[in-house]
Amino acid sequence: MNLRGQLVDEQTRCVHYHTAKDIIAIKMKCCHTYYPCYQCHEEEADHPITRWTKMEWDEKAILCGRCHEELSIATYLAHDTCPHCHAAWNPRCEGHYHLYFEMEE
User: Fold this and answer.
1) pLDDT tens, per residue, the chain with 105 residues
2) pTM
3) Could you say which DSSP state residue 6 is in?
4) Phi and psi of 56, rounded to 5°?
5) CA-to-CA distance for 27 and 52, rounded, in angstroms?
6) Which long-range contacts (CB under 8 A, 24 or more apart) does 82-87 make?
7) Helix/strand/coil (H/E/C) assignment for every residue in 23-52
């Protein structure tokens, strides 16, 4: 698995987001590389983020940092905890969904 960014621990927290609930990484559609956040992608990649379309939400593009299970975008968006290990995810990440996923306007 290709995971990049300014990671601070093995649960995918980075220098930008590192609370107890900041434990997911997102596979960027543009480069098929997992990053913990958009800022890590902006700092390391040489291209802009391409958003996943709604038709692609079955793609496994979310990595739970606690159990390292890959989840579909649809599964991630439908839950506030990992369905495998039950770790809680940061609900404030919803404010960044529009950067990664095409959302309804």
Assistant:
1) 789 999 999 999 999 999 999 999 999 999 999 999 999 999 999 999 999 999 999 999 999 999 999 999 999 999 999 999 999 999 999 999 999 999 876
2) 0.94
3) -
4) -100, 5
5) 10
6) 87/23
7) CEEEEECCCCEEECCHHHHHHHCCCCCCCE
